[in-house]
Design goal:
mainly alpha, elongated
Length: 94
């Protein structure tokens, strides 16, 4: 069994961020299918903002991971998840 090190936690945080990004972008495709002709950019604007937040913070976390700043990478990952959660509540409600 592997030890739970800072490096492993940082890897997990980055993985969660990538999954959040993929989930957000796939929601755009789902909306395009569901809404059909009523599909507009305005309908997906909040999702695209969320995707940009996820992509930017994931990029920062990966850079910190490569620089072996595991604690900072973990902090960025946690901050990203909390930011995305707050953004979702503000944009879509609970």
């Amino acid at each position: 069994m592997t030890d739970l090190t800072k490096e492993r936690f940082a890897m997990g945080g980055i993985t969660i961020q990538v999954l959040a990004l993929v989930r957000t972008l796939s929601e755009v495709l789902r909306l395009k299918y569901v809404l059909g002709p009523e599909f507009t950019i305005a309908a997906v604007r909040p999702l695209m903002v969320g995707a940009m937040i996820a992509a930017a913070t994931c990029w920062i976390a990966v850079i910190l991971f490569v620089l072996r700043r595991y604690t900072a990478s973990i902090a960025v990952s946690i901050t990203a998840v909390l930011t995305l959660l707050i953004f979702r509540i503000v944009e879509f409600g609970w």
